[in-house]
Design a protein that fits this description.
The structure is a single chain. With 150 residues, the protein is an all-alpha fold. It has one domain. Helix content is 85%, strand content 0%. The protein is built from five helices and no strands. The longest helix is centred in the first third of the chain and has 30 residues. The mean pLDDT is 95.
């Protein structure tokens, strides 16, 4: 599979997971909290796998490095927001507004990534290289998910 196809599919899954969290009523804080932890793991594992694969490669190109660094900074900020949420009680008044902000940050980042990074991947790497990037991403992603679930 081409890496851009896999990333686009994962982006859709992440956006759906965020939307589902925002659509749920917090009736059972414990159950809602478990769903949030699953979302947090999905976001962080996706970002870290991107960083270890596509951004590691893109950052070596001096012309592309500033764009890659911007995406890495967006990842850092989103992880910070998610960790801040994890430290709050779900029943606190600011929890849902902060989740909305994290969702907005994710949506903006995905739009930028798909609009700027995906074309670069198409331009800089041939089909075989993009398929190899996909295999590397998938392996990194699996490993990271296992590490985060411990």
């Amino acid at each position: 599979m081409d890496i851009t196809r896999r990333l686009r599919e994962e982006h859709e899954e992440l956006q759906t997971a965020f939307s589902n969290m925002l659509d749920l009523d917090i009736i059972d804080a414990e159950s809602y909290g478990r769903r949030f932890i699953d979302l947090m793991i999905a976001v962080e594992s996706h970002e870290r796998a991107e960083e270890q694969t596509i951004y590691a490669k893109l950052a070596t190109d001096i012309d592309v490095r500033p764009i890659a660094l911007q995406s890495l900074e967006e990842h850092r900020i989103l992880r910070m927001l998610m960790r801040d949420l994890a430290e709050l009680e779900i029943t606190e008044e600011v929890w849902i507004p902060r989740l909305v902000v994290a969702n907005n940050m994710l949506s903006l980042h995905l739009q930028i990534e798909e609009g700027n990074i995906f074309p670069l991947l198409q331009e800089l790497f041939d089909e075989e290289e993009r398929e190899e990037l996909d295999r590397e991403f998938e392996a990194a992603h699996r490993t990271i998910v296992q590490q985060l679930r411990i």
